[in-house]
Specification:
This protein has about 80 residues and is mostly helical. It has one domain. It contains three helices and no strands. It starts with a helix and ends with a helix.
Length: about 80
């Protein structure tokens, strides 16, 4: 579980660097001169990216832990039991 937190933090740092570079180079000038809109847009980008990254990390963790296989086996057994006369 420790690697998941490290992965999320690394991705957030990468996103923050890209957004900071975009801000410094003026790529976010289309947002307008209002600082509130710029901050809201940046927070939205970071939150959405963090959510997607966290969910993907949980999918990988779930796949590696083997808990999915146990659930799959129990569903297969229920299907086989249901087919018997």
């Amino acid at each position: 579980m420790r690697w998941v937190i490290g992965f999320i933090l690394a991705c957030l740092a990468g996103i923050a660097i890209v957004v900071g570079l975009a801000w410094a180079l003026g790529w976010l000038s289309g947002i307008g001169g209002n600082v509130n809109i710029a901050v809201a847009a940046i927070l939205c980008i970071v939150f959405t990216s963090a959510l997607g990254t966290g969910l993907m990390a949980l999918i990988f963790y779930s796949n590696r832990s083997g808990l999915d296989e146990e659930s799959w086996r129990s569903q297969e057994e229920e299907r086989k039991d249901g087919d018997r006369p």
